[in-house]
Amino acid sequence: MDLFEMIQDAVIFPSSDLTKVITIGIFPAAAALITLLLLYIGISMGSLAGIGVTAIIGGILSLIAFLFVGGYAFRTIQSTIAGSNELPDLED
């Protein structure tokens, strides 16, 4: 397999099922937007405690979202090593 084929496979593989890619992308995007909103609220409170509390809440939400995405990435790696050419289901 030459470099061009590897690059082509890397681009084609995620786009094999765009609904799964979009579904997975919604979680970290929503967590980031919620975190920014919470930080804005904390800053508008004008106190350091408000900023700290909203940053902790936003960090927890982001951590949950990115653990979900990381777990799916791990399952994708497992299924690819097993020889699958499709993205794994989101059911488990």
List the helices and strands and how they pair.
Layout: H1 3-12, H2 18-45, H3 48-81
Helices, by number, come to 3
Order of helical and strand elements: HHH
Q: Characterize the overall form.
A: elongated
| Major pleated sheet | none
Low-pLDDT residue intervals, each spanning 5 or more residues? none
Beta-strand percent range: under 5%
DSSP summary, beta strand count: 0
Average predicted local confidence, pLDDT: 84
- Overall helicity: over 70%
Separation, N- and C-terminal Cα atoms: 33 Å
Features:
single chain; 92 residues; mainly alpha; 3 helices; 78% helix
Structural overview:
This protein is mainly alpha-helical and 92 residues long. It has a domain at 18-81. Helix content is 78%, strand content 0%. The chain has 3 helices and no strands. Helix 2 packs antiparallel against helix 3. The radius of gyration is 18 Å and the shape is elongated. The chain starts with a helix and ends in an 11-residue tail after the last helix. The mean pLDDT is 84.
Quick structural gist:
With 92 residues, this protein is mainly α.
